[in-house]
Write a structure and sequence with these properties.
8 strands; Type II DNA modification methyltransferase; alpha/beta; DNA_methylase_N6_adenine_CS; Rossmann fold
Length: 179
């Protein structure tokens, strides 16, 4: 795996061995950013189930100012630290070593881009988006990008966000919510 485009384009990304995380493939990551960007002029990213950190590192590579990555798994945290070090701009990244439910009440917004790729997607995505809205953690122009299995049907609206775009890539479905 590698960073697809931007300042870190072409640099390799490390991923976890085994089935603990499901890293987003280069192809799907590139498609996601072509769908929502493909480039940004600043802003803050929240990656709530960071895995290897590839999605949020890609977002910063494409122009986001900074990223907060949340990951509970110790092995994944070590991989994220290596991937952040590869950028040579570690000050742009903050890794919170905890689960999403612990992190959400501790976060301060606003975030302009939120990346959600949780296990057990539908239940977590709905709950997480509701918590983000209740905590005033989202900017007015926020995009919430949800990656799930293609069989998962997310509601048209969650809190004050509605589906803007939705597309299936192989076994994955990407749903983008906006205000």
């Amino acid at each position: 795996m590698r960073i697809v485009s931007g300042n870190y384009g072409g640099r390799p990304l490390k991923t976890l061995e085994g089935k603990l995380t499901r890293p987003t493939s280069d192809k799907v990551r590139g498609a996601i950013f072509n769908m929502i960007g493909p480039y940004f002029d600043g802003g803050r990213v929240l990656d709530l189930f960071a895995g290897s950190g590839g999605l949020s590192i890609e977002a910063v590579s494409r122009g986001m100012s900074s990223a907060v990555l949340v990951e509970r798994d110790r092995k994944a945290q070590a991989i994220i630290k290596e991937n952040i070090a590869m950028t040579k701009e570690t000050e742009k990244f903050q890794l919170l070593e905890m689960d999403a439910n612990t992190a959400l009440p501790q976060l301060s917004g606003p975030f302009d881009l939120v990346l959600l790729d949780p296990p057990y997607a539908k239940e977590e995505i709905i709950k997480n988006i509701e918590q983000l809205c209740q905590g005033n953690l989202l900017s007015d122009e926020v995009m919430v990008v949800c990656e799930s299995d293609k069989s998962v049907d997310l509601p048209e609206e969650i809190a004050d966000l509605g589906i803007w775009k939705q597309k299936v890539y192989g076994i994955s479905k990407v749903t983008v919510y906006v205000r």
